[in-house]
Each structure stands twice: as structure tokens, then as C-alpha cells.
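Regression test attached.
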Amino acid sequence: MKHPDAIVIGAGIVGASCAERLSADGQRVLVLEAEVVGSGATAAGMGHVVVMDDNEAEFALTRYARQLWLECAHQLPAAAEWEPVGTLWVAADDEELDAARGKCAFYRSQGCRADLLSAQDLYRAEPKLRPGLAGGLLVHDDAVTYPPPVAAWLLERARNRGAEVRTGVRVQALEGGTLRLMNGDSLQAGLVVVAAGAASLRLIPGLPLQPRKGHLAITDRAPGFVHHQLVELGYLKSAHGSALESVAFNVQPRATGQLLIGSSRQFGQTGAEIHHALLSRMLQRAIDYLPGLADLSILRTWTGFRAATPDKLPLIGPAPDREQVWLATGHEGLGITTSLATGQILADLVAGRTPGIDPTPYAPARFLSAEDERSSIPEAADVHFH
Amino acid sequence: MSTSIEVFVNSAPVEVKAGSTAAVAILVAGVDAFRLSPSGQPRGPLCGMGICAECRATIDGVANQYTCLRLCHPGMRICTEVAAAGAGARGDARESGCSE
Amino acid sequence: MSDLHPSREIVVVGAGPAGLQAALAAHDAGARVTLVDASPEAGGQIWRGGHPPSRIAARLLGRLRDSPVQFLRGCTIVDAPKPGQLLAMHDGNPLWLSYHRLVLATGARERFLPFPGWTLPNVLGVGGIQALAKGGLDLAGKRVVVAGSGPLLLSVAASLPLYGAQVPVIAEQASLSHLVRFALGLRYLPGKIPEALQLAWRLQPLRFQAATYPVRAHGDMRLTAVTLRSADREWTVDCDYLACAFGFVPNLELAELLGCTVREGFVVVDNWQQTTAPDVYCAGEPTGIGGAEKAMAEGAVAGLAAALLPEDANSPVSRNLHSQAAPHLARRARCHHFAQVLERSFPLRPELRDLPLPETTVCRCEDVPLIHLEGCSSWRDAKLQRRLGMGHCQGRVCGAATEFLLGWPMQSVRPPLSPVPVRLLAAAALAKADDSNPHPQTRPGQ
């Protein structure tokens, strides 16, 4: 492709979603990927599609995104391992059960299907949980998926509309709409979308992004061990706190019968090595909730980097101070869930349409100081905020 | 060299030479499909040296042991996945020798 | 003997010919040595349960028994999270090993190539059936077809009758002209392989078929027969077992996890068997397939160097090390010649790439057929998109196959190097905190 309308940097699920939506608007899209499709945080993450209610903007984005997932779920390839298992938030004690009650009321008030589970209901739903838990909250329409094939599927749709995907291509620098590649070539487009996860920092130094390392482990097949995505209610403290290190119980049943075990969060780490002290804590936490897990085999452990912003909301929209450059990054631990919404919102803004939800909370410009805000919104951002 | 020991493969007693591996005990018991692959193909040992994972079975209640790397001891209880799957389908774990 | 590093701690991974030699040489040079192996016995694949044990094997194993070298059998390396530390599984429990220097003697595994029926029970490796026979399998009256490539075919075929088996045919894929050149190249080498060759050629002249390879294994729940092909014909042989492998591939997982440079499939080492990773040495098959003689020579050099090379790379190498290593260096040079002969003698014929049908399983753990790999660009791509190499063996079998079939080098080794129970990794950090003395020799219960 000689003269693409848009270049998307990053063929993770977010970049793939942007490419898919932009191509649906008739743009000639070129996707550049340093490794292979879906190989960064897309491969490293847990692959949950969840509605989260920590704050209004997060809730709006995840609910909108989950709706988009549910609309296309029947078209996903088998390799996407779409499993509409729901999320079961586990309450360890009465205090957490109260929190679950509050969450349940909120979800229902917003039209999301959710049920409060008594202790008895909880053990009927998940007999392998340790005794003595107080109950839980079941959010029905949440799902788990294996994201790399979803990224490939989105890109295939884009390709069918004329998009091109080049893998093994590293972008060295970005100057306006001009990209300098590691191999010395340069490329140009009127619109450049940076969707490179935590690696976006390398292309745009100074972005309000911090890599937040996570550890995961996957077991051998153990079909029927659990039936829902299980999360402790304390998860939100781990995800939204800013502690240097935290772990929370999060186990998913995969379509293969394997169990994916998370989660951990670490700031200030850049190496991919396994940090055994943290991995041990994370696995012990999982065993605390699911004692039988101890005897299953772990096939692999790995780490990945979430791109975390200070307010834990993504960056979707024009990059401040940079003509022609747009951002689709900063999704922290919700990149899989929110990928489809990100692509849609970005394409809507580019096309001048009103997005399905208010995009203001995700606008990259929110991190500018009030002083230089006015002067630095690029022309391309001449869109209709409502 | 000629001393033999008794182990149990899927609950059935089997005599093996001292120094035999658990994989050998399973074969001596006449079982050559140790396990089923995810799509249900029968599988037996391939490498014999702890690489391929095809010979794994439950030994003394511990699942996923590489039977080619484990020496038999008197009374060792070995349960193959195929037997466990069959017993599971019948709802009878005892019969498979896997019950604890 | 070493006045320089009286308490240098050395961990040797793998207790085959290379690891045994390395451990004993390092011990003799004054180091404190821990030798670990995943198997229940020392000796590696070649010497384990020998029938009868070779003299050299008996001598080394005897020396190990009599030495203070700590031998941890049934000990699997799980991870190498930082320099100087290994996490292992020993008797089902986590065990941290600390080292000043590490010698990798991880040996090799067989290369398996997919063809229709290769996943049937009773189709196994050449070394595989030998390992089971050494492990006590009675082959009396069993018909075993031996196929694939490499000198191991002959030595195993020659040994199988000792376990009662009949070998109706030995099918070597390499051409006769290659084999003749190999035989000529062996003139100057001692060891078992030429003996086995002579034996096989003398006893079974009609059963040895060069330029012949298996195209299909037959059976429903188990193997019943195999179809072989040579240039001019295809025929089917009834059998109880098919022992089939196409040479060796080195076990590189730990070396890769440690960041050692690997070139053309082998660990890069210098004259002292040092890898590019600091304080990590490597000996035997991982540096180049060459058999036990080469492994022992390299192991001795690695063990001596690990014990005696100064910390500072600019310091002069002691005369002591030079003089002790000299005979091993000379022997190593001769063996490298053999390794080159070996490499040239058994080139895999391109027709082997055409054996798997589209529906033939390539990844046995995840049941990934060849056709599912269509459209993938690399090992990692196929792993992410088609589950290739995602199962229990972690790509150790299908990795070598797809490298040959599709030209994909394997990437991204991840801990644990072998599957371990969740409880082990959950307890790993605690095990370290409890381990006030880093040397495992002092741990209770050992």
C-alpha cells in the first residue's frame, strides 16, 4: 500500500479494532506490528469481557464495550474460545457481601443482569470454593475469551476491506504523520493511530503511561473445576489502588478446560522475568479460595505489561501537541474488554460522528494542564464533543 | 536383578522386575493407551525420557506424573487417564484405582 | 588442589556423560558440587540401566557414588529467575539452588517427525524403546521395526534382541552412499557406534534398508503394522512396536532461559565451554550432537574451567588449569571431527516433509493438525493463533518437527521448564526465605 489514509501502529486487539472500524468507514488502513498479531498485552492478558463499576466513566466504557462484544460473539471464530461464563464476585465476609449488595443494586439499576448469591447459592454455583465464604455477586453477561485470534479475526475483516497488515515492522520514531521505521524506510499518512500498549511510550515520550507488570499462570486441563470467572471483591482494591505491589484472586475457566490464574500488579518493573515472591503470593491467594487448585499442574507462567494511566482510564482520541497522531492506548487491565469500544469511539471521532458514549473522560487532552490545553488541541480533534 | 515387586495398575496387581519404571508397569499390565489426547486419540509413551509427556498418569494419588521417570516401589498405585475417564463416566472412581 | 577458589559452588544440570565428567572434574579441582538430574538414576539416556554397563560408565558412576558430590536424583529445574539461582522441583517440593558457576549438561532428545499414525500407542522413539527396555519392559517375542535416521538405529537394533525382541527391518532414511562415507569417517574413533555398526551389518544384512522411511503407521487403538517406502517400492510390515526417530535435537530450554546465545540450534561456547551468559558453562549435546565421547571431553573441560577459571576474565588462566585440561582438550578436538562426520552423514531427505497429510497431528499435546498451521508466519504466530506447542511438553516434540517441516525456529521459552503443581510455585518463595544456607547440602532430609 503506497498511500494509506491511516496507519495503525500495533496489531494487538486495540489496534486491530481501530483498523477494523476505520476500514469500515472506507479508510485505506495500514497496520504495522513489531512482532506478530496479538503478541503483546493481548497475548499476555486474561481475556475477560467484564463490566466494571469502579467509576462512572469505567462503567460506561465497559458496558458499551461488552454490548459490542455480545453483538459480534456469534461471529467469532472457534479459536477465540468465547465462553459466556459470567463473572462471580466472591464475598469472603459480611462486609464484602454488603459491598456486593451495593454493586448488585447498581448493576441492576443500570440494566445489567446481576444476582446476589447467598453462601448456599455460592457453593451450588462453585462447589470447589473454600468453606466459610459469605456469598457473592454474579454478573451474568460477562465472558472470557482468548484474545489473539480475536485480533486476527478483526484484522481479517479489515483486510477484506482493503487494509494491509505488516508484521515484524518496528517503528523507530514518529514525527507528525511521518513514521521512520527501524529498517530505514519512512511512511506517511494523514492519520496515525498509536495503539502499541505500554510500548506507545517509546514512540511518544511523556505520555501519561506507566507499565504495570502482571503475572499469570495457566494449568493443565481440568474441565468443570470452576464454572464462572471468579474474582474476589478485593480485586478492585488491587486494580485501582496505586500500591507498588498487589495480588488478587482471579481464576477463569478456559474453553480448553484449563484454568487461568491471576492476578498481580507491580509498578516500577520493566523486566519480563518471573518474580517468584509475587507469583507465590498470587498462587497462594488462589489456593486460599480454591484449595483443590494446589494439585493441578501449571504449564506456563508469564508476565505482561499493562499500560496504566494515572486515572486508570484509557487514552482514546487525538494526541495533544501532535498533528495527525491519535492515541488508542492506556487501557490498563481492561484492554480486551474495551478494545471494541475503543475502535468504535476512535472511528466515530475521526469521522466526526457522535460516539455511542461520551468520549470526554478518555480524551488524552485531559492530562494537559489547563493553561496549554486550548493551544495544543490539534486540528484533527475538531470533533463534536457533547 | 531377578527380584520382582507388586504394584497396582488401575487396581489390578502387576508383577514387575525391581528397577522397572511405572511406564513399564503400565505396559506389563497390558495397557498401551495411557491417556487420551484432547480430541480423544489414544496415546502411549513416545520418548521414554521425560520429554514428551505422553506417558503421564496418576501415581499414588498424584496426577500428571511422568511414569517413564518414576521407579516402581512395592504397592505403588498407578492409574492411567483412560481408566480414570472411563471410571468417571461410570461414576465409579474406586474401580479405576484412583480413589484416595 | 585449587588454592584459588576452595569453596566455589558449582551446580551441574544433567547427570549423563557430560554432567558426570563435569561434576567429578570440578570436584577434583576443589569445588563444592551439586549434580541434578530429572531421572531416578545417574548415567543419562545412554548409560542408564546399561545392559551390561560399559566400563567407563561403571567407573564414572562408581566415582560419583564414592565422592562427596551431592547428587539430587529426580530433580527437575523449573526456573532460572536471576543469575546465581535456580528453582528446582525435588521430591515434589520446591528447592532453590545457588551457584557461583553453572554447568549445563542437559543432553539431547530425539527428533520426531509426523507421519500418518505416528501418534498411535506403541509408536515410540528409538531411544524411547531402549529406555523402556532398560526400564524393565519385556520384549520377548515382540516384533520391533526400527526406523528413522542416525547411528542410534543400529545400536538399538543390535541391542533389542537382548531383550527378546525380533527386529524384522531397520529402515534408515539416509542413502547408502552417505552411510558408507560415515563408516569410513569412523575409522579413527573408538567407542560403541562402530561396534554396533559392525554387529548390525554382520548379523542382519538383509534387514537393514538404507534410503527407506516410514510413511504410515497402521492401527486403531494401537499399532499393528507400518508401511515403509524406498525409492522403488512401498511395503507393509506387521509389528508390535515401531521405534522411530530422526536423529537428535539438543535440550536448550534452560540455556535459552538463562540467555545463552544459541546459533544454528546449538549453544555457543568458547574454548573453556563458557556460554555467553556469565558463569554459565555448557557441555555435551547442547553444543553440538556428537555422542558420549565428545560429551565427556567437554564435560571435563567445563568442570575444570568452572572450578578454576578466575572471576576476572582478564586474569591469567592458571598453569594448573592448562595442564589438567590439556588431555581433555585434545580428546575434544578429535570428537569434534566425529561430530562433523555425523552431521554430514545423516541429512534428512526432503521427502520427509511430505509425509504428514493435512489432517496429520503435528502438536500431539494440543492435537493441532498440519492444516491448522496454514497461514501462520512463525512458531509464535502459530502458538498464539493455533495452540501449537501450548501443551504439556511445551513444544519439545512439535518444535523440532515444525522447524524441519516449516523452517520455524522455536521461540519464547517460559517457566516452569516442566509442568509443576500449583502448590510448588505457591510455596517457592517461602522455600527460599527458609533457606538460610544457600548450599542445598545442608538442607534437612537429604
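Expected vs. actual: identical. The first helix of chain B runs from residue 22 to 28.
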